Amino acid sequence: MTFQTYLQEQRTKHLEELFELLSIPSISALPDHKEDTHRAAEWFASALRNLGMDNVELYPTKGHPIVYGEWLKAQGKPTVLIYGHYDVQPVDPLHLWDTAPFEPAIRDESIYARGASDDKGQTFMHLKALEAILKTTGTLPFNFKICIEGEEEVGSPNLPVFIEEKKSMLAADVIVVSDTAMIEEDKPTICYGLRGMCGFQLDVKGPRRDLHSGLYGGSVKNPIHAVVELLQSFHDKDGVITVDGFYDKVVPLTEDEKAAFEALNASEESVMKEVGVTELFGEKGYTHLERTWVRPTLEVNGIYGGFQGEGIKTVLPSEAHAKITCRLVPDQDPDEILELLQKHVKENTPPGVEVTVSLFDKGAPFVTPFDHPAIQAASRAFEKVFDVPTAFTRGGGSLPIVSNLDEILKAPIVLMGFGLPSDNVHAPNENFKLKNFDKGLLTLCHYWEELAGVL
Q1: Which of 83, 168, 186, 350 has the most C-beta neighbours closer than 10 Å?
Q2: Distance CA 436, CA 448 (A)
Q3: With contact defined as beta carbons under 8 Å apart, do 159 and 151 qualify?
Q4: CA-to-CA distance for 286 and 48, rounded, in angstroms?
Q5: What is the pLDDT of the chain when averaged over all its residues?
């Protein structure tokens, strides 16, 4: 029997198992669901044991447990680590769901439930793909380790420590994550890089109290004016970041990467229409995709100070504030960038005010080389099933845990996602297309075959 036949014969059973998993309200952010979240961890642990995994454990953390299991019977063969998460987002607003979020339902050829796409459904597929290979061949082409956490939706606060402490146990030659989406329906996509991030806040302090603008305006430095001057100093008129040294370690695109981006035929006009602007803006010489995927940014996310009520209050405020985040690309180091930013602020602080810089979240960028054999093998597996060329993308956002895996385990990471932008992840009516469930299982099975030929 082939794995294709096995998956077809077991489809109803597999969907019943997935529905059982999706019915568990494992909302990691809400204390009321702590027991439910633990129950989802137990569900995965039981599934790993049934699959034939050894050393299956629930590792406690300060929050929710981490599930681990391994199959290390392929002597002399490489090792693959599969990462996923069993926790889900809250379901509010509940009244916008067409069916109950933890009562899985199929309609319009999609599975509707919280976690269907992000990430229970996609993690579940990995188990069933391995099951199909084991049942039809009696063995696996690699050694496999599986790590499934329960806090991804709250920022994975405890996983980095676990990875560092257990890096020998988790060591692998390739890491595979299915927690991303294809760029559009029927267009398989491999995201081979993500931007990192660092965030900070500017607190500008002027006079000890708010002042009457008629009595002091024009003679005392206005903190709002000062914060605007500081923010203006970060860019030139063409959108180039003017912080000394900011671009020094940015790795340029290869010609192959440029060609892959061009092959997507992305329409900047459609982007403008989607977001409701008449013109795009950014570094000259770069396309929209390049600006949002492979160029670093510095964006003001919030600015406030002074009177905010209705009408006008003639006040010169005593303080003003701004919140700023930078998206970073290889090989920018978040700590180095924050040092450069602090130096820039110090050198550009207007006279008459004091500025404090408070540092917030940070995460390193990640990229697996575009031509890495593990990436190219994934592309061939996608194309066998979807029968169209695979799109290669980088993500403009950040997944801190991916950078943690990259930095600590130092193995190539393959992001093979089967979701869609229309899956409503983190929103009411989250769903996962049955077509992508079926094709995703086949793709994963083919991937292990393709990977065996290059590792």
Answers
A1: 83
A2: 18
A3: yes
A4: 46
A5: 96
